[in-house]
Specification:
- The chain is of the alpha+beta class and 219 residues long.
- It has a domain of 65 residues.
- 53% of the residues lie in helices and 7% in strands.
- It contains 10 helices and 4 strands.
- Strands 1-2-3-4 form a 4-stranded antiparallel beta sheet, with no helix packed on it.
- Strand 2 and strand 3 form a beta hairpin.
- The protein is globular.
C-alpha cells in the first residue's frame, strides 16, 4: 500500500532526508543523491515494501511525451541507488529480484532472469518471470506450466500479469482477453498499459488502440 512520506525515514542501516535527498549511514557518512535515484528511492519508500515496476518508475520520472532512452536512464538511476545503498544482487534489501528479472528479460538475458527471480518471495511474480523467461529460451513446456499455475492460483488478482505473459508469447487473442479481465477487476497496473514493454507485440493490433481509449490512456 502506498504511503504519504515526508521528513526523514529509516531504511535498515540508512536514514533518508525526503526533503534534501541526503542519505546518511550508521557511520555518519552522507551521500547527496542525484534527482532521479532520489525519486526512485522515494517511490520505494512510498510503496511500503511492495514491488515498484520499471513502468511505474518511467511514468513518474518521465511523464507524458518526454523523449529519453528510458531503459538506459532507469538502469543508471537504479545502479547509482544500489551502489549508494550497498545493495547486493545476491541478497537485495531495497531493489527487488522481480525488478532485475524483468530488466534481464527485456535485455535478452532470460537465463539471468531465471537465476535472479529465485530470490523473489512473491509467488505470482515468480511464476510470471518463469513463463516469459522460459518462452524466451524456447522451453515452451516449462513456460506453459508456469503460466497454467499463474492462472490457476491468481486469475482473480493478477489478470494484467497474465495478459503480459500472453503478449510476450505473441498470443494476442489471449492477451486481450486478459486485459479485459484486468479492466473488469480494476487492476492497479492498467495505468502503465501504454508504456509496458511486455505488451509491445500488441501495438499494431487495432484492439490495442481501442483498449487504450477505453481506459483513457494516450496511444
Amino acid at each position: 500500500m502506498k504511503q504519504s512520506v515526508s521528513g526523514r525515514v529509516r531504511l535498515r542501516d540508512f536514514e533518508l532526508d525526503l526533503k534534501t535527498g541526503k542519505l546518511c549511514s550508521g557511520d555518519d557518512s552522507r551521500t547527496l543523491l542525484r534527482e532521479q535515484p532520489f525519486q526512485v528511492l522515494r517511490m520505494l519508500v512510498a510503496n511500503g515494501g511492495e514491488i515498484v515496476t520499471r513502468e511505474e518508475i518511467q511514468r513518474t520520472l518521465w511523464p507524458g511525451s518526454t523523449i529519453v532512452d528510458f531503459d538506459h536512464s532507469i538502469n543508471v538511476a537504479i545502479g547509482i541507488l544500489r551502489k549508494a545503498l550497498g545493495d547486493s544482487a545476491n541478497n537485495p534489501h531495497y531493489i527487488s529480484h522481480f525488478f532485475w528479472s524483468e530488466t534481464y528479460v527485456m535485455k535478452g538475458r532470460a537465463q539471468d532472469a531465471l537465476a535472479e527471480i529465485e530470490g523473489e518471495r512473491n509467488d505470482a511474480y515468480r511464476l510470471q518471470i518463469y513463463a516469459i523467461a522460459y518462452h524466451a529460451l524456447a522451453r515452451e513446456k516449462e513456460s506453459d506450466a508456469a503460466l497454467k499455475e499463474l492462472i490457476e492460483k491468481y486469475h482473480t488478482v493478477s489478470a494484467f500479469q497474465i495478459a503480459e505473459v500472453y503478449a510476450f508469447r505473441n498470443q494476442p487473442d489471449e492477451a486481450f482477453e486478459w486485459l479485459e479481465r484486468a479492466y473488469a477487476q480494476r487492476d492497479g497496473d492498467l495505468p502503465v498499459t501504454n508504456i509496458d514493454p511486455l505488451l509491445k507485440s500488441l501495438h499494431n493490433d487495432p484492439r490495442y488502440a481501442a483498449f487504450l481509449k477505453k481506459i483513457h490512456l494516450p496511444t
